[in-house]
Amino acid sequence: MHFHWGSESSKGAEHTIDGVRHDGELHIVHKNCAYSTKSEAMCSPDGFVVLAILLRAVTKPKVEPVGLNKILQQVKQLQEFGSITTIKPQMKMNELFANIKTDEFFSYKGSLTTPPCVEAVNWFVFPKALEVGKKYLRHFWCLQDSYDKLVINNYRNLQDIHDRTVYFRSMM
Fold first, then answer.
1. Cα separation of 35 and 48, whole Å?
2. pLDDT tens digits, one per residue of 93-107
3. DSSP-assigned letters across all residues of 34-90
4. Are 2 and 156 in contact (CB under 8 A)?
5. For the segment 8-42, what is each residue's pLDDT rounded down to a tens digit?
6. Which residues, in sequence order, are CB contacts of 134 under 8 Å at separation 6+?
7. How far apart are CA 21 and CA 33, in angstroms?
8. What CATH number did the domain enclosing 40 receive?
9. Residue 168 β-bridge partners
10. Which structural domain range is residue 21 located in?
């Protein structure tokens, strides 16, 4: 699992829907168990499945994402480079989704969004953004790297769709 975010003045999601870019994006990354290593999975077009949850910063979420908040509260403990924290207790996957409709999603075959950006991912992007407290996203904007510089705008720029087909699935 990893996050992408912008800054106080920029949006940090890596996917857009109808031209809208949200404040952040959570990726829940799964490696295909047919491959024994991450390196081996990177060499195959079906090496990974990534669930992408768009994040919208609000003052007070309509529905609190309880599981996600457990993670986001701990980010404050990681402000300095090399900091470590433990998130307890374990949580269920559905606690991360709050009120996201998991029966609606976009899917396409694409690449990792961090180097080496290999074409090895089946993406599932949920169109409804998850509301998170802006106070939690601010914790990300305060993280520092090994040079004491802020870690902001850690997202990949929007890429051309090229010849990809994007599918939309709705169980309705």
1. 10
2. 888 877 888 899 999
3. TSSSHHHHHTSTTSEEEEEEEEEEESS-SS--HHHHHHHHHHGGG-STT------S-
4. no
5. 889 999 999 999 999 999 999 999 999 999 999 99
6. 57, 58, 59
7. 32
8. 3.10.200.10
9. 106
10. 2-170
